[in-house]
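Tip: read the tokens left to right.
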């Protein structure tokens, strides 16, 4: 059994009652599919006056003779009706029998499909739920090398492909094969010789179809990967639309998109060509067999007189009845290959190991009492260390500023404190407890993060601000907005805190967005605040308001300020000057100016880049 097929089974077993009912109804469908053609025989016997007159009830001789008993019982009943009410009543009975068998066949097909639908939609929901949970839980480092569009394609397109293509396997192993089996049993009863032709057809057809479908799975996987690239291109283009337009790069992005959809079209055409070949090929091979049966069976009826003409017509109906499930099996086997390729891509994400997890004995820490200690840490994103033997103490209630040129490792400290990444060597502790020994959720509850990029969501102001405290009242939200100097513009909006701020908060200015980010951190009210270049993207007026908001927020808190501008850090208790992952100077603003070293040069340039 394919590995990906095994991985899907636990998802389907959650709906085992639906699976069981689907199997039961598929078995009944297959049985009545055969009976619907067998029921034509007594109808034709009545029509052509070929039925034997049986005036006594037949004897039941056990399950092995059930077919013969059923036929004789029906003939007895037809004889009785004909004698009592005339032949039209017998005709009416046989027509009703045919209608009943076809009715039950289609009813059981509908019920089986209903249960299959519930399985497919249920597994789709569970797979998406598990995948989104995994996507959210995976560390930030995972996405630094992955295209977001490809992850979206796996989450939406590939999971859907698993639903549409994969669960035909239930019909592939139950419904269609049993329809063929029941039909062949009935055909063997009618004529052993004729049925041998059918036995030749099935394996030959299977071999031809499997040859065509061999490369389908690899092609499907390529098409799904290309679909991921396509979604990535759209996502990046929409995110960077202002840059694309300002640099007149529309043509370049259009060519990227057009090349991708052309590659996808070629792959889809190739896959479609093979998929489309399955049905006509199996049907044509079936018609060849039917033609041989017509010639050979016709001889048995007309020349040898060894086969009843009405039985031969029923036999042809049964033989043709095999073609539909045979076509379905060939088509389903192609679809399963598509589903396997999609499942492979889904499970690639689900099985990624999450490197940032809770230790088995992790503690829940709810207070910050003493200090943060960073001790002899090394950290590298790839091969080269970004931080080298870095050590620092951050006492409770103090503001520590990190300054230095771009690439000196300032933002990396923020990433390590919040455990977006783990240190390569050394350790970071809070109140003497290593970060890895603290439950992730309780660690991040202790911290508020305001980044250079104001990350807001397409929702109301209230929903954005109460992200860290969902149960916050309107009064608490407004109080946080006031601390962040944001209420002055929020109160003038038509819907106040219920105003929707658009995609990424784009209905607001940069300064307004940043003040909402600060309000969000204020409402969370954590003991440790991390400000990662929180004012570097702002104009002077916005910076003044944001800086004031930051100072309001930092009162009575431990703050780590990653600074870009001088105004942000003048009042810090300790300024740490970094260069190439190491501390070169530290002290107060005045003390460092007096040293006339690296910090002094940075101040003279009025910029920390």
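Filled-in amino acids:
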């Amino acid at each position: 059994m394919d590995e990906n097929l095994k991985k899907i089974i636990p998802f389907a077993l959650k709906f085992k009652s639906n699976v069981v009912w689907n199997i039961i109804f598929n078995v009944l469908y297959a049985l009545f599919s055969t009976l619907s053609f067998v029921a034509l025989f007594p109808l034709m016997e009545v029509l052509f006056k070929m039925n034997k007159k049986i005036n006594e009830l037949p004897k039941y001789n056990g399950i092995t003779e059930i077919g013969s008993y059923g036929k004789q019982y029906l003939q007895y009943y037809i004889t009785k009706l004909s004698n009592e009410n005339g032949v039209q009543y017998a005709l009416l009975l046989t027509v009703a029998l045919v209608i009943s068998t076809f009715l039950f066949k289609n009813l059981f097909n509908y019920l089986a499909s209903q249960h299959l639908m519930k399985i497919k939609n249920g597994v789709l929901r569970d797979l998406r739920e598990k995948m989104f949970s995994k996507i959210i839980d995976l560390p930030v480092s995972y996405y630094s090398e992955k295209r977001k569009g490809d992850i979206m394609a796996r989450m939406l397109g590939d999971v859907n492909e698993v639903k549409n293509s994969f669960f035909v396997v239930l019909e592939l192993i139950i419904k269609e094969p049993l329809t063929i089996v029941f039909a062949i049993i009935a055909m063997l009863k009618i004529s052993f010789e004729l049925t041998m032709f059918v036995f030749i057809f099935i394996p030959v057809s299977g071999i031809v179809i499997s040859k065509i479908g061999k490369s389908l799975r690899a092609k499907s996987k390529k098409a799904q990967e290309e679909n991921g690239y396509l979604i990535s291109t759209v996502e990046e283009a929409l995110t960077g639309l202002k840059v694309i337009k300002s640099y007149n790069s529309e043509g370049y992005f259009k060519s990227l998109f057009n090349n991708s959809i052309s590659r996808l079209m070629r792959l889809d055409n190739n896959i479609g060509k093979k998929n489309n070949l399955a049905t006509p090929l199996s049907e044509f091979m079936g018609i060849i067999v039917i033609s041989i049966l017509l010639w050979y069976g016709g001889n048995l009826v007309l020349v040898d007189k060894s086969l009843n003409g009405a039985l031969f017509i029923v036999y042809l109906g049964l033989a043709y009845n095999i073609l539909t499930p045979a076509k379905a099996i060939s088509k389903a086997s192609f679809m399963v290959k598509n589903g396997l390729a999609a499942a492979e891509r889904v499970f690639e994400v689900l099985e990624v190991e999450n490197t940032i997890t809770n230790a088995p004995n992790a503690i829940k820490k709810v207070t910050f009492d003493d200090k943060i200690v960073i001790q002899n840490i090394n950290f590298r994103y790839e091969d080269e260390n970004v931080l080298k033997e870095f050590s620092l103490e951050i006492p409770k209630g103090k503001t520590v500023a990190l300054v230095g040129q771009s690439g000196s490792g300032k933002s990396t400290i923020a990433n390590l404190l919040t455990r977006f990444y783990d240190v390569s060597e050394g350790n970071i502790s809070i109140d003497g407890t290593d970060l890895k020994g603290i439950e992730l959720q309780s660690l991040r509850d202790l911290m508020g993060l305001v980044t250079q990029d104001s990350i807001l969501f397409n929702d109301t102001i209230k929903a954005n601000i109460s992200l860290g405290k969902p149960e916050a009242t309107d009064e608490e939200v407004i109080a946080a907005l006031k601390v962040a100097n944001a209420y002055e513009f929020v109160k003038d909006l038509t819907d106040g805190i219920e105003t929707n701020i658009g995609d990424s908060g784009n209905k607001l200015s940069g300064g307004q967005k940043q003040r909402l980010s600060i309000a969000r951190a204020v409402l969370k009210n954590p003991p440790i605040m991390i400000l990662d270049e929180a004012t570097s993207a702002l104009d002077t007026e916005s910076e003044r308001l944001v800086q004031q908001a930051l100072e309001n927020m930092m009162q009575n808190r431990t703050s780590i300020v990653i600074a870009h501008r001088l105004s942000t850090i003048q009042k810090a208790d300790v300024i740490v000057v970094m260069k190439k992952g190491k501390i070169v100077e530290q002290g107060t603003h005045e003390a460092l100016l007096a040293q006339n070293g690296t910090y002094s040069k940075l101040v003279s340039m009025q910029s920390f880049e």
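The two ends are 58 Å apart (CA to CA). The domain at 3-350 is CATH 1.20.1560.10 (ABC transporter transmembrane region fold).
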